[in-house]
Amino acid sequence: MSTADRPLAGLRFVLVGPGRVGESLASWALACGAHCLQVAGRSASGRTAEVARRLGAAAVATADCAASDADLALLAVPDAALPAVARQLAGRVRGVALHAAGALGAAVLEPLRSPACAVGTFHPLAAFPAPRTGLAAARGIFFALDGDPEARALGRRLAAAFGGEAAVVPEEIRDLYHLAASLAAGGVATVLASALDLARRAGVPEAARAGCGALARGALAAALAAAEPATAITGPAVRGDLETVERQLAALAGTAPDLRPLVIALARAALDRRAQLAPASPAQRALAERLARPDLLDRPRKRVLTSGLPD
Asked: How many whole angstroms separate alpha carbon 86 and alpha carbon 65?
């Protein structure tokens, strides 16, 4: 195998945190020629032992992790556990320590920083519902870096080896970076799950529910392809169709009243996004004013047909 096929040849690392993210990152590193020395978890048994076996490494408890012989300590533990793990490993890490959390910057690893250890972040902007151990799964992923120059340099080397992209996301904007990522993934999935649940509760045919999924894929593709994603927003709200929006909200009252706040918030957000592209039309302004009224959440208006006669 050529050097080009092994861009991380000679890199020795320990993995702290044998979860889905940690196993994925470590597997990618191995595929690029790196060598995993240890896998550390809450204990040396169970999942820690299983992941260590798959990576060809020794399984240890975090309290027994010795990273002084490694070039890299990769910390892939939950955000809330990072401060305690960093304190636990203080004085035992040399080279570079990188954590994979999205919402936190490099400062959380301060207990590890020393003349012999640089600290930083290496957050993969991707979902890991299960370990993604094949290197092909890493292609195109963005990695958020932060921290000491040596740590950022190693983060860039790892990202390039994986076929991804990397850039610095400084600590002061990490919360908003992570929120944006959460909206792009969990937010989109929440809206789709709510739409499909509404269709199910309303008795919409199963084939039509599948069509909603195809519609979502098309809308997402259009938004990603557009120079300005907001131009891909469609529906009665951005048309300023007050009558249709009110009919739909009234119908929700009997079928899925719990979804009314979400539907109203999305309609208002859609109007706001489109208003950033062009001045709102009179119909859009009228709908925005109606949606802003607090009583809309408490008292659905009577359904009215275009003719003005009661339904």
From this structure: 12
Distance CA 64, CA 88 (A): 10
Q: How far apart are CA 51 and CA 17, in angstroms?
A: 10
Superfamily of domain 7-169: NAD(P)-binding Rossmann-like Domain (3.40.50.720)
Q: CA 93, CA 108: separation in Å to the nearest integer?
A: 15
DSSP 8-state secondary structure symbol assigned to residue 303: P
Residues making up the chain, counted from first to last:
311
> Taking each helix axis from N to C terminus, what angle separates 149-162 and 20-31, rounded to the nearest 10 degrees?
80
* pTM for the structure as a whole: 0.85
**Where are the domains positioned within the chain?**
7-169, 226-304
Question: Which of 284, 260, 264 is CA-nearest to residue 274?
Answer: 284
Residues 271-298 have pLDDT tens digits of 999 999 999 999 999 999 999 987 776 6
In the numeric block, which tokens belong to residue 54? 């798959």
Averaged pLDDT, 63-81: 94
Longest dimension (CA), the chain: 80
